[in-house]
Amino acid sequence: MKRLLPLLLLPLAACQTVSLPEGLSFARPKDEAPVPGVVIDSLPTGATLTYPHGECLTPCRIDYGMTVEVQIAKLGYRPVRLTVPLGAKDAVIELRPVGRSTAVEEESLPPL
User: Fold this and answer.
1) CA 21 – CA 93 distance, rounded (Å)
2) Is the Cβ–Cβ distance between 68 and 84 less than 8 Å?
């Protein structure tokens, strides 16, 4: 087993650890260029962000190497489709409610 240990560590010598905003890390070969990415959040948070390589809940970081189409959707709100160009900055997208809300006077409510 002692002879196998140096062989197992050899592939890791060519890698570096890269920190992600969420506190996660992954190994990437040193000569590989970083992939551009952007963090997209929504108001309210917790919306589903769908993009070509998957989906996640906002706030969400997506990594991409070209212009990408995304959709942000949450129950009770109108979905938003947008194009994220290469080199885009982090963004917060405000979602609009589907229905109209109006003020209700307490006296007009039925008794419980």
Assistant:
1) 19
2) yes
